[in-house]
Write a structure and sequence with these properties.
Jelly Rolls, four-stranded antiparallel beta sheet, 2 domains, Arc Repressor Mutant, subunit A, 9 helices, about 25% strand
């Protein structure tokens, strides 16, 4: 519990709380270890909870009516996730799943709300964060609807090479994981990557992705 209290001093939203409230959160937290592929919640569940990720990685992914998965974002250690159901008692719009061995701490709405009510500025910050997430999801969905796969893949690759000086990055995503992020299939992603390679834009190995022509990817994004 003492270790969790210390971690909460560095967590967004909770780091502004007085020590007594962080200690109360630590006492009320329900710990859970997750293996890769285990879910905190499923799309469609009514899940009025908050999660603090202490170790590992979680992904927030939506399943379309056609059965295709799209990953909107991932959570890193030290981040807090607020279940939408906590605020409106409606089903969750996506699923939260572990992608690595993970350690999470969960609070139910009934447990955490009395503490949040003592900090109205934090509730305002949470509302702002949720609004920002909603706007980002809208941009992603808009891009999926109107941007071809090559453009979406170019956008993802440019995000991986966020530093203009980067020429090589670790390949830590499988074809299936990439396909989930660009709302396509592994087969299509493979073909587009092969096309990029044949045109001298980049080179993909089992371990790395090396970028040779950043402007070609930027042009793809701009043209879409």
């Amino acid at each position: 519990m003492d270790d969790l209290t210390l971690q909460l001093t560095k967590a967004e939203f909770f780091n502004k709380f007085p020590e007594r409230d962080r200690a109360a959160l630590a006492r009320l937290a329900i710990p859970r270890k997750l293996q890769p592929g285990e879910f905190c919640c499923h799309q469609g569940d009514v899940w009025p909870n908050a999660i603090f990720l202490a170790e590992g990685s979680l992904q927030w992914a939506m399943l379309s009516l056609a059965g295709r998965e799209y990953v909107f974002f991932t959570l890193s250690p030290g981040e807090v996730f607020w279940g939408h159901s906590m605020f409106d008692d409606q089903p969750m719009p996506a699923s939260l799943m572990a992608t690595q061995d993970s350690m999470v701490y969960r609070w139910s709405r009934d447990a955490i709300l009395p503490i949040l009510y003592r900090h109205p500025e934090t509730l305002w910050e949470i509302a702002g964060m949720l609004t920002k997430t909603m706007r980002k999801a809208r941009e992603i969905i808009y891009g999926l609807a109107f941007q071809p796969v090559a453009g979406r893949l170019a956008t993802l690759l440019l995000d991986r090479f966020s530093d203009p000086d980067d020429t090589s990055v670790e390949r830590d995503l499988t074809l299936s994981a990439i396909a989930s992020r660009v709302a396509s299939s592994p087969e299509v992603v493979c073909r587009v990557l092969q096309q990029f390679q044949s045109e001298g834009v980049l080179e993909v190995t089992r371990a790395t992705i090396t970028l040779y022509d950043r402007s070609a990817l930027e042009n793809l994004v701009e043209s879409d």
